[in-house]
Amino acid sequence: MDSDRGRIDKYIILRTLGKGSTATVKLASNIETGEKVALKLINPDKLSSMRIELNALQLVPEHPNIVKLIGFSNSSWYFRTEGRTRLVSYIALELGKNGEIFDYVQKLGGFPESIARRYTKELISAVEALHNSGIVHRDLKPENIFFSENFELKLADFGFTAPIKGRNGMGLLGTYKGTRPYMAPEILEKKRYRGALTDIFSCGIIIFIIVVGRPPFFRAERQNPHFQHIVNGNWERFWNFHKSAPNTPDFSTEFRDLIEHMLAYNPDERFSIDQIKNHSWIIKESASLEEAQRFLSAGSDISERNESFVEGSRIQVEVNRKKSEDCVL
C-alpha cells in the first residue's frame, strides 16, 4: 500500500511530488470534482511562510500566468491509510500539469527565440502583475515556473515575497533571501536592495537559460570570472565565452542588448518592466501557442514522469546541484 495515500478534508492524497525546506507538496484529487491539485503541507515551524504566500496570492488579481489559489486550511486532520492521523496546515494550488520549464530546457536545450519570446512575455506579465499589486517575488527561477495542461506559463512559489516598498515604506529591503544562482549581486553582497530590480535580474538569468540552454554564470559574485566580465563592463568577453561553447545559438544584437540591461551589475542601469515590454527583442513576432506546443511536445514524457508542482527545491543548473547549499532561508 502506498504510504503517501490518505485524506485531508475533501482531498484524497495520491503521492508526494516534492519536499522543500518549508513544505511537502502532495498530488491530491478533489473527492467532489476529481480535479487534481497540488496540496502544499506546511511544516509547523514554517507557518509564517504559508501566511506570506497566502497574502501574495490573495493580493494579486487572477492572472493567466500565475498559479491559482484553490483553497487553504490552518488546521485540518490528515487521515493516513495506515490509521495514523495528524493536524496539518495546507494550501491547495493549481497543478502545473506539464511540469517545470527547467526540465524542458534540460531535455530540449535552448528554445528557438520565437518560442522563448512567447514565454518571456508571459513571465514578464506575471512579474508585472506582482509588482503592480505591491509585492516582489524574490525567488524567481526556472524551477518555480511551470507549464499548464495547454503549455501556458505559470509562475509559482510565493513564500519569499515582500512589499515592493520595503517593510518601512522607504523602498528598500534587507533580508538575504532567494536561491543563490538566481540572486542579484546586491543581495549576495548583503546590501539593502530594491526588490523590483532584483526580480528583473533574476528574470534576466531565466531568459538567458531559456534561450541558451545554460546559465550565464555560476553566481553573480565578483570572484566568478564570467560575472566579473559584467562587473567590469566587458560584455564582449562575456558573449565570446558563451559563443565558444558547443551548441550555442547565434545571439542577435537585440537579445544581447536586452540581457545586458537586465543583468547590469548596477541596479540603476537595469531595465524597468515597461522598458523590457517595449524592447526591440520582445516586440518581435512570437510563436503561437500551437507552435510552442509542437516544440514542447518532444519533452512530453517529462510531465508523465513528473506531474509536478515541486516547491523550488531543485537548483539544477549545470554547474551546481548542491540543493542544501543553495536554497537560502
UniProtKB/TrEMBL annotation:
GO terms for molecular function: ATP binding; protein serine/threonine kinase activity. SMART domains: S_TKc (SM00220). It is an enzyme of class 2 (transferase). Gene3D superfamilies: Transferase(Phosphotransferase) domain 1 (1.10.510.10). The chain crosses the membrane at residues 196-217. The keyword Lyase does not apply. ATP binds at residue 40. Residues 11-282 form the Protein kinase domain. It catalyses: L-seryl-[protein] + ATP = O-phospho-L-seryl-[protein] + ADP + H(+); L-threonyl-[protein] + ATP = O-phospho-L-threonyl-[protein] + ADP + H(+). Its EC number is 2.7.11.1. PROSITE patterns: PROTEIN_KINASE_ATP, PROTEIN_KINASE_DOM, PROTEIN_KINASE_ST. InterPro entries: Kinase-like_dom_sf (IPR011009), Prot_kinase_dom (IPR000719), Protein_kinase_ATP_BS (IPR017441), Ser/Thr_kinase_AS (IPR008271). One of its GO terms (biological process) is signal transduction. SUPFAM superfamilies: Protein kinase-like (PK-like). Keywords: ATP-binding, Kinase, Membrane, Nucleotide-binding, Serine/threonine-protein kinase, Transferase, Transmembrane, Transmembrane helix. The keyword Cell membrane does not apply. Monomer. PANTHER family: CALCIUM/CALMODULIN-DEPENDENT PROTEIN KINASE KINASE-RELATED, SERINE_THREONINE-PROTEIN KINASE CHK1. Belongs to the protein kinase superfamily. This is non-specific serine/threonine protein kinase. The lineage of its organism: Eukaryota, Sar, Alveolata, Ciliophora, Postciliodesmatophora.
